Amino acid sequence: MAFELEPLPYAYNALEPYIDEETMHLHHDKHAQAYVNNLNAAIQNAPEFGSIDIEDLMRRINDVPENIRIAVRNNGGGHANHSMFWKIMTPNGGGNPTGPIAEAINQAFGSFDAFKAAFNDAGLKRFGSGWTWLVADQNGKLSVISTANQDSPLMDGLYPIMGNDVWEHAYYLKYKNMRGDYLNAWWNVVNWDEINRRYQKAVGK
Prior knowledge:
Elements: H1 21-43, H2 54-59, H3 66-87, H4 100-109, H5 112-125, E1 130-136, E2 142-148, E3 159-165, H6 172-175, H7 179-186, H8 192-203
Antiparallel strand pairs: 1-2, 1-3
Helix pairs in contact: 1-3
């Protein structure tokens, strides 16, 4: 198969009490695996797209043949988004950002608290399923956006520095319909080291 689901970089229960073990099994082993399986099935009809990086595939979504483009958009987006998601979380994470991303957030939003409020608000207001993001444009300018379903910011020329999954399967077993509680709790598992790495990649440092 062209694309593969990487194992989690920590144990399934490592993010408790903020994200429970059962949710991590379901989210990673079932939902994320399904995106990979469906993506691989789709690109069997265009194998030249199976040999490129998933981020490049999403940047080139308009080059994908029209008859499989929706399947690649949905499932490739799901794979790209989740590949980032597992890595930007870590046990004993959270706290205030450090390093270059901390300064960039302060410059763009005025303070970490203001950024956090904007990020959570975008996630809370996303109707239905989707993601809330911190993205950088081609000039390195930061902004908070949300996207529907598994749409990737890469399709619009934006680089996802960090994002939180607000599909119900990401939180419903523990938080039920209280998406705001999940959004608040999630900051306790944020991996600022990985987010700094992504920021530096985005701005070419």
